[in-house]
Specification:
The relative contact order is 0.20. 24% of the residues lie in helices and 32% in strands. It starts with a strand and ends in a 6-residue tail after the last helix. It contains four helices and eleven strands, in the order ββββββββββααβαα. A hairpin with a 2-residue loop joins β1 and β2. It is globular, with a radius of gyration of 16 Å.
């Protein structure tokens, strides 16, 4: 599939799988990438296989460096985040087992950041993304909108036409139009 990215953060993803089953992605984490906020998954196990460079992973408050040739597995319930503290890119094969709605929500997060017609920081938008992640992914500290506040906004957000995941961002055409792709 086409390369996806986040327009304001040094991170790119190249899908390696399609359809059901685990999500496998060849991820490029640029120098200084500060990673996602601390979170845990109730159903998904994540695997990080570092091909080149290194990542600093925080797993339940403990930091560990994972370098080229090494693998880190994040089991369900483990609060985690990761970052690239180096001045080089880290090339990492990531795998999310039992991804559930993450298959639709992850492209939505990047897509919203690229799509100038939608505001990813809109509380109504955040409420529906949080609702779509409910039962799998929980952010542990003040990132975005969560909990009771999100639940209260969900009906209003739906009535206003917001979605927790948009089919548009699953389409290769969207990414080809928004991210420079290598020539084949």
């Amino acid at each position: 599939g086409p390369i996806s990215s986040h327009p304001t953060r040094p991170v790119w993803g190249i899908p390696m799988t399609e359809g059901d089953g685990p999500i496998r992605t060849l991820s490029v984490f640029g120098a200084g990438y500060d990673g996602p906020p601390p979170h845990y998954h109730e159903r998904s196990v994540e695997l990080f296989e570092v091909e080149s460079g290194s990542l600093t992973m925080t797993l339940d408050g403990e930091e560990q460096r994972v370098s080229a040739g090494e693998t880190a597995t994040v089991d369900t319930g483990v609060v985690h985040s990761f970052r690239n503290e180096t001045s080089d890119h880290a090339l990492v094969t990531t795998e999310i087992r039992s991804p559930g709605r993450l298959r639709q929500v992850l492209p939505t997060l990047g897509g919203l950041a690229h799509d100038r017609s939608r505001d990813p920081d809109d509380p109504l938008q955040q409420a529906l993304v949080a609702d779509a992640l409910d039962g799998n992914t929980t952010f542990v500290r003040g990132e975005g909108i969560a909990g009771a506040a999100a639940s209260a906004l969900v009906p209003v957000a739906r009535a206003a036409g917001y979605q927790g995941a948009y089919a548009t961002y699953l389409q290769p055409e969207f990414w080809r139009a928004h991210v420079e792709q290598p020539e084949s």
